[in-house]
Amino acid sequence: MEEIPNKSHVLVLPFPVQGHINPMVQFSKRLASRGVKVTLITIDSISKSMPMNSNTIKIESIPHDEAPPDSYDNFLEWFHVLVSKNLRQIVEKLYDLEYPVKVLVFDSITTWAIDLAHQLGLKGAAFFTQSCALSVIYYHMDPEKRKVPFDGNSVVELPSLPLLEKKDLPSFVCQIDLYPSLAKLVFSRNINFKNADWLLYNSFDVLEKEVIDWIRTQYRIKTIGPIIPSMYLDKRLKDDKEYGLSLFKPNNETCMKWLDSREIGSVVYVSFGSLANLGEQQMEELASGLMMSNCYFLWVVRATEENKLPNEFISKAKENGLIVNWCPQLDVLAHQAVGCFFTHCGWNSTLEALSLGVPMVAMPQWSDQPTNAKFICDVWQTGIRVKARENGVITREEVASSIREVREEEKGIMLKKNAIKWKQLAKEAVDEGGSSDKNIEEFLKLVLH
Q1: How many CB atoms within 10 Å of residue 320?
Q2: How many other C-beta atoms lie within 10 A of the C-beta of residue 93?
Q3: Where does the Glycosyltransferase N-terminal domain start and stop, copy by copy (predicted)?
């Protein structure tokens, strides 16, 4: 690994939620391993949950007197104001002739950060925590300057993407009225194409080849993923086994002990991430479907969701299942007992499953998840998607048959074979001389010299 000769300093500003912080912390570790000084900027309430090694990444915490607002809209504005008031002071505090601050790597949804960076004489790199395909969709389907007409039902044809039906589109495109403020936020990220000095994506070249080739004809893009702890991929960063932040307390010992007692490939791992909320009827159908599948299952049900489980299910499930509030997902996916991942298709979870060679049952909920599910099933061919009824509910029969198809039927063999192929390609991308490894090196040379 080449070490950058110029002693320089990179600031990293993630949006303070788990799914955005994790990949940006991992990217910071990759930068630090190349001899670059890295400071992660976050808020007090997050930094207290981050036992970071001070020899690799420094944390600059922004104090706040009051708890962050619950409302998403208010939180966005609150974070914007907080960073705007404090960034200049932070940069001045970190002033060092030996390690000059050169660039701000900012979460792509904090579009205002590029202006702050430029005002302080810094370059700005927008970090996208979702797929490149999402960016192409948002770019072409921006309601303010829509380049592609969409009547709500027709199939959408976009450059570099497969044909997309309504069920494959992000919820902010096909259900814009349901999420007006979030829709405005995701489409505002298009500003980064115009204003940011670089675009960084948590993806890798062969994973979204056509999409990436198209974006490269328009903008300065660097794919630098998959950004997961090194010990699960290239093992080049010593002891890098976890992201370094968990806003939920995982049941590590319980999960791993239980998995150790199961046969190879016998367990279905079920998780819908840190944000998704299933309705009571859907929870009941999912619970019954898991029982009907006659397989072992490890199901993450957050504490706030437990009251939706059917009463009789918890006692019945003890025979074949383990229900926990949170778990060490990477360790679980890497365990030989896990043969299938029943997932909401969040981008981090999707990349983790691809990187660890685990076939999926896709049950997307909202945001980018329907598009990720389309790629999982039709492009990368590492999973199948459950089919919902007209009322949107996935039945227990559909849950059980989908699990059986992945685990027991001929298609499952093909899915597993493809999953192993993507695992190898993911490792190659981040390993020495791989596409993402070279892109990080090139990015640093461009920025720091």
Answers
A1: 15
A2: 11
A3: 10-39
